[in-house]
Amino acid sequence: MSDYQYYEFCAADRALDRQQLAVLRTISTRGDFIVSMSAPP
User: For the chain, which residues make up each domain, given as ranges?
Assistant: First the structure.
């Protein structure tokens, strides 16, 4: 039996830099990391 794990992270105060994104990519090989430049409401 397999488990499905879903995690969602959001940096509301600032975007993640390239180094932080690189760290996330080493932790998860199946993660989707989307950089959004939209301003908070």
Answer: 1-36
